[in-house]
Amino acid sequence: AQSVTQLGSHVSVSEGALVLLRCNYSSSVPPYLFWYVQYPNQGLQLLLKYTSAATLVKGINGFEAEFKKSETSFHLTKPSAHMSDAAEYFCAVRVSGNTPLVFGKGTRLSVIA
Amino acid sequence: GAVVSQHPSRVICKSGTSVKIECRSLDFQATTMFWYRQFPKQSLMLMATSNEGSKATYEQGVEKDKFLINHASLTLSTLTVTSAHPEDSSFYICSARPRDSPSNYGYTFGSGTRLTVV
Question: Between A and B, how many residue pairs show a Cβ–Cβ distance under 8 A?
């Protein structure tokens, strides 16, 4: 069975600082990996996804993630945090086209002015 | 892009009553919808997989008689919480993807329903 582990339930950064949210996956077959963002009382919005075409994936709002098979990681980064980035971020995995997403526990990002 | 409309966004009901939550795929056909439950400050837990025209598949520990899922058409799935109790208070979210989308397509999520049982 596949799973994801997000290290750090809460990350706090200063505005303009680098954002790094960690995600490690476990899967017996090549996985599809995703990062979603959730604002309070809202659904989830897709930030980016790993499609196997490129290991460095660029998403919306300046976020990107790098797939490292040797480290079974898919960490999310953004060079410069903005106040509007404060939200909950979820890493998710699935192994085939129509199976449900399996989510990590989420990381709450706080941005300090 | 694909849009999933979820209603209501918030509902308060009395203990013992039933509540229906709807998810509609507005611009695509969804043969499969997934229903998740999210407790405060926690992750999303899969409740069931809803397939158009057939019975839903429930995850272990989810009471199928309490959480009734219907997927009568390719654009509509409903979750009915029957005889609701305060412990059913939670955030419920549905997700789906277009029927003919590639296998690496990210699912689209509804905006969620905040259920409060008093």
Answer: 59
